[in-house]
UniProtKB/TrEMBL annotation:
One of its GO terms (molecular function) is ATP binding. Pathway: Isoprenoid biosynthesis; isopentenyl diphosphate biosynthesis via DXP pathway; isopentenyl diphosphate from 1-deoxy-D-xylulose 5-phosphate: step 3/6. Residues 69-146 form the GHMP kinase N-terminal domain. It comes from Halomonas heilongjiangensis. It catalyses: 4-CDP-2-C-methyl-D-erythritol + ATP = 4-CDP-2-C-methyl-D-erythritol 2-phosphate + ADP + H(+). GO terms for biological process: isopentenyl diphosphate biosynthetic process, methylerythritol 4-phosphate pathway; terpenoid biosynthetic process. Keywords: ATP-binding, Isoprene biosynthesis, Kinase, Nucleotide-binding, Transferase. Catalyzes the phosphorylation of the position 2 hydroxy group of 4-diphosphocytidyl-2C-methyl-D-erythritol. This is 4-diphosphocytidyl-2-C-methyl-D-erythritol kinase. NCBIfam families: ispE (TIGR00154), PRK14608.1 (NF011202). The active site is at K14, D139. It is an enzyme of class 2 (transferase). Its EC number is 2.7.1.148. Pfam families: GHMP_kinases_C, GHMP_kinases_N.
């Protein structure tokens, strides 16, 4: 028997298919140009309503205090914004590595925002939920809108795009990268000339690069080793500030073979496909 009121929702991963750092704002945040695409792989959240207004999250994440967990922060923000007096019991099935560049925390937050909006019958539109989400992290709005996107600003100015949808072999080099450490590194280049979205799309996947790669290679030798190993077999990039690296394959059969080889070499890896529409929105019908 399903639990009454239970809502089970995906929190998909993202890849940055391209990442250009074109400047730095006075507040220290970096101006980016990036292409976001979702993956058919991610975390799962199970939500049930509570009448007493309490918020409970299980299980705890290692190294993350409950009040810092982006799921609870998203839930509290939504309660404060709307005056809603309902609460929730939230169970998190965590599959995405933390500090992996796959946007797991941001995606969990977006799923909490859209899921609780539904559970509590709030009826907020995506624009308002995205504005709330931006206060939690630069990557939250794209997960709220649920469309693969060309992003500018700090990642919040979004234009929906339809990208190619290859298979990917993603390697997690078993190290957590600190996003602030990468963005704070002296050697990071911050002066890539901006390009238009049309030019970026015209160039296609073979022209796409990630400006964080050189810095992440220097700071995290495990990531450099994974990039070297994978790129000698298929076109490979870093996602976000890492740690994960991904190879792009034209068929599932080729991706399967590469995954098997990676596993034999004891890499922690998984196979997935790029999707331009978030599976979260498909479940919610939004
Ligand atoms: C690099 C990306 O993964 C690309 O998708 C994201 O822009 C990072 O997004 P995120 O993890 O949601 O980042 P946030 O939690 O907002 O920021 C973490 C830290 O990264 C730095 N940061 C982040 C985003 C950005 N455009 N410029 C920055 O300088 C800031 O020091 C910030 O304190
Ligand atoms: N629900 C959550 N899931 C994962 N991390 C969380 C969560 N809540 C808070 N955090 C904190 O956020 C940090 C970043 O986690 P996340 O998994 O989003 O990294 P990431 O994939 O590198 O993100 P990005 O690509 O956006 O930089 C974690 O190290 C953790 O301290």
């Amino acid at each position: 028997m399903p639990e009454p009121g239970l809502l089970t929702l995906p929190a998909p991963a993202k890849l940055n298919r391209l990442l250009r750092i074109i400047g730095r704002r006075p507040d220290g945040y970096h101006e980016l140009q990036t292409l976001f695409q979702f993956l058919d792989h991610g975390d799962t959240l199970h939500l049930t309503p509570r009448q007493d207004g309490e918020l409970r999250l299980m299980p705890a994440l290692p190294g993350v205090a409950a009040e810092d967990n982006l799921i609870l922060r998203a839930a509290r923000l939504l309660q404060a914004e709307t005056g809603c007096r309902l609460g929730a019991e939230i169970r998190l099935e965590k599959r995405l590595p933390m500090g992996g560049g796959l946007g797991g925390g941001s995606s969990d937050a977006a799923t909490a925002l859209l899921g609780l909006d539904r559970l509590w019958g709030l009826g907020l539109d995506l624009g308002r939920l995205a504005a709330l989400g931006l206060g939690l992290g630069a990557d939250v709005p794209v997960f709220v809108h649920g469309r693969a996107a060309w992003a500018e600003g700090i990642g919040e100015r979004l234009t929906p795009v339809e990208l190619d949808t290859p298979w990917f072999v993603v390697i997690h080099p078993r190290v957590a990268v600190s996003t602030p450490a990468v963005f704070g590194a002296a050697q990071l280049t911050r002066d890539t000339p901006p390009i238009t979205m049309a030019r970026a799309l015209q160039g296609g996947a073979s022209s796409w690069r990630n400006d964080c790669e050189a810095t992440v290679r220097e700071l995290y030798p495990e990531v450099a080793r994974a990039l070297d190993w994978l790129s000698s077999r298929a076109p490979t990039m870093l996602t976000g500030t890492g740690a994960c690296v991904f190879a792009r394959l034209p068929s599932e059969a080729e991706a399967d073979r590469l995954l098997a080889e990676a596993t034999r070499h004891r890499w922690q890896a998984f196979l997935t496909r790029g999707v331009n529409h978030s599976p979260l929105h498909a479940v919610l019908g939004r």
